[in-house]
Structure to design on (346 residues):
């Protein structure tokens, strides 16, 4: 199967590029220094996601030379914009929220300009303008939301890379050798190669360049399709990224109720709470991966067998699995607090 070949090429190339980029980042001083909100204690180079994106670019170029059907140039242009933004933030740090959102909005606008909104349906006079406005707004919120949430959830060793592997493989299984399927294989292979160096204890971090870039690419996948198929692919991608999107949305909702700054760094995501409760990074990732694989499998099988109805059923399963995941964090925190109290009183 051709997608398996692209996966292996992507994997091997990512291993080589990541190994090469580690000393380069150290020499440039692009290093993540731990602070009170960090989940690591030892400084590590960040920006390793550049190796992932470079690998994806090479594999997509090779596939295009072989005449494969691939996403349009707008995908590459938008991904390049957010990747440069992420790398600049990794290099310099301290970019304001306004600048980050403005650049991301420009990239999202580029995709919408070339590929159109998510929804496209007609309405009677005098409301014909509404479908375009609603669809454009939904498309904008979708791209911005997925891109930023993916970056928010890149906080412990191996987590974002594992999500990329599972979502990429799921996308390939769902789309086959079509453009999105080849892109999924390239993302999965590159993330798997990177994980060799990013698994706990990590030797390198993905950084904003990788998290922004990967999140943006996944967000753009549905725009490769038209009409009802585009809506279907939004559901597929949402389920493949379910644990990231649900954790991010829940945390944003809770912080909003408390009137906290949405873009300020914090440690209130579920995976962070599990780490604070004493679980090692790799165990948290494996716990999340089990849920990711279950939901992704249901989405691929349900969607291919029953279409939208199957995806809706997979969505119901995803809700149940996420509740169990959230419950595990509450249980882990309760055990940690009880143990801490015994140590203090004993």
């Amino acid at each position: 199967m051709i997608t398996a070949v692209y996966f292996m090429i992507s994997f091997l190339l990512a291993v080589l590029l990541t190994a090469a980029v580690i000393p380069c980042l150290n020499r440039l001083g692009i290093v993540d220094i731990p602070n009170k909100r960090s989940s690591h204690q030892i400084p590590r180079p960040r920006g390793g996601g550049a190796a992932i994106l470079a690998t994806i670019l090479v594999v997509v170029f090779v596939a295009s030379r072989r005449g494969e059907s691939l996403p349009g140039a707008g995908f590459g242009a938008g991904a390049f914009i957010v990747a440069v933004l992420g790398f600049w933030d990794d290099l310099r740090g301290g970019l304001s929220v306004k600048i980050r959102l403005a650049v991301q909005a420009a990239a999202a606008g580029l995709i919408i300009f070339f590929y159109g909104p998510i929804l496209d349906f007609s309405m009677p006079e005098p409301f014909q303008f509404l479908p375009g406005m609603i669809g454009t707004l939904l498309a904008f919120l979708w791209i911005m939301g997925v891109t930023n949430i993916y970056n928010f959830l890149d906080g412990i060793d191996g987590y974002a890379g594992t999500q990329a592997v599972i979502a990429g493989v799921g996308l390939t299984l769902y789309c086959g050798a079509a453009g999105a399927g080849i892109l999924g294989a390239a993302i999965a292979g590159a993330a798997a190669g990177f994980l060799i160096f990013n698994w706990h204890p990590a030797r390198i971090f993905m950084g904003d360049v990788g998290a922004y870039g990967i999140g943006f690419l996944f967000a753009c996948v549905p725009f490769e399709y038209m009409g009802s198929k585009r809506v279907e692919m939004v559901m597929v991608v949402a389920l493949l990224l379910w644990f990231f999107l649900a954790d991010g949305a829940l945390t944003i909702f809770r912080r909003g109720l408390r009137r906290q700054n949405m873009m300020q760094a914090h440690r209130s995501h579920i995976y962070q709470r599990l780490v604070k409760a004493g679980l090692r990074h790799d165990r948290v990732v494996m716990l999340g991966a089990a849920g990711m694989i279950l939901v992704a499998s249901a989405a691929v099988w349900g969607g291919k067998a029953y279409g939208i109805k199957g995806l809706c059923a997979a969505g119901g399963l995803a809700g149940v699995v996420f509740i169990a995941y959230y419950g595990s964090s509450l249980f882990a925190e309760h055990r940690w607090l009880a143990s801490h109290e015994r140590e203090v009183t004993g």
User: Anything to note?
Assistant: Residues 2-34+42-345 form one domain. Residues 125 and 131 are 12 Å apart (CA to CA). The first helix runs from residue 2 to 28. The two ends are 61 Å apart (CA to CA).
